[in-house]
Write a structure and sequence with these properties.
300 residues; alpha+beta; Tetrahydropterin Synthase, Chain A; three-stranded antiparallel sheet
Length: 300
């Protein structure tokens, strides 16, 4: 084979390789391919929910291929300052998760990831201002955060559908919702004052309840003591009456014993303390029972 023939077949082989390289292409499992014909999108290979990954064919030199990611994509929105319904200024930091649901529409509207980020971020910020601006700061920070994130996600999805971006919004999360640094000190002071007032009110209520309980207890003690005293006096009176009756009956039956008993009471009254001094005549009738015992009944 001559040199010219080798050159000819070499050129033919090179042309075949170039044609094959521009005819066959591989689509990864994680990607979708948009086939462009003279710069216009005509079909999608391996869209969501359909097969097509692997080796594919296109018309050489007339069609070319642009690949887009089929996986979930993330967008970190810039910090946005939101004014809540109670006029509190909050710095909100959020992120969006989405995926390309319609690659043809995505390419026609957004073209690439950089343009998608530039177009989606204003939607996120606008939805945050609209949804969070209709509720109070306490709900944004903790009270209804999950519901507010869901409402913001739905609002972004609705706006993206109206703009025909060809994307499916999966989730939106608020990572942080805090007061601006300039307002934090004033808010903390206001919260501290409110807590101090609440604590003072609780202490005042507790003091009032304590006094009421003490007054009720004192009243119950006074009533109990009065009832016990009344019952004691009644019982003592009944005992004294019974003692007097028994003594009268005994006096009528045995006057000597009655006189002895009364003398013993007189001894107890006069000498029972142990420190009394009694000056009497030795033959005083007061001491007759000391000499003659219980049988002494008259004067000596």
């Amino acid at each position: 084979m001559t040199r010219r023939q080798l050159t000819f077949w070499g050129v033919i082989g090179l042309v075949v390789l170039i044609v094959l390289a521009n005819t066959f292409f591989i689509v990864d499992q994680r990607e979708s391919a948009i086939v462009l014909r003279l710069g216009q999108p005509v079909r999608v290979i391996h869209p969501l929910g359909k097969p097509g990954a692997g080796l594919n064919i296109k018309t050489p030199f007339i069609e070319n291929v642009i690949k887009v990611d089929r996986r979930n994509l993330g967008l970190e929105a810039d910090q946005e300052e939101v004014i809540s319904a109670d006029q509190e200024r909050l710095v909100v930091d959020a992120f969006l998760r989405y995926r390309i649901a319609d690659p043809l529409q995505y390419y026609r509207t957004l073209r690439d990831d950089r343009t998608a980020t530039a177009r989606l971020e204003p939607l996120v910020n606008s939805a945050l201002r609209q949804v969070l601006g209709s509720t109070t700061s306490s709900n944004i920070i903790s009270g209804q955060r999950a519901q507010l994130m869901a409402a913001t996600r739905d609002d972004v999805a609705r706006r993206a559908a109206l703009a025909r971006f060809g994307v499916q919004v999966i989730d939106l999360r608020i990572k942080r919702a805090d007061l601006p640094a300039a307002n934090q000190a004033a808010v903390y002071r206001r919260m501290q004052t409110a807590r101090q007032q609440e604590a003072a009110q609780i202490r005042a209520v507790g003091e009032q309840q304590k006094r009421q309980i003490i007054a009720a207890a004192d009243k119950e003690v006074a009533i109990t003591l009065a009832a016990a005293s009344e019952e004691g006096e009644t019982t003592r009176g009944q005992g004294d009456a019974q003692r007097t009756r028994i003594f009268a009956q005994s006096f009528g039956r045995d006057p000597g014993f009655a006189a002895f008993y009364r003398s013993m009471q007189a001894y107890e009254t006069a000498l029972g303390q142990g420190d009394a001094t009694v000056v009497l005549s030795p033959d005083s009738d007061f001491f007759r029972y000391f000499e003659r015992g219980p049988g002494a009944s008259g004067r000596r």
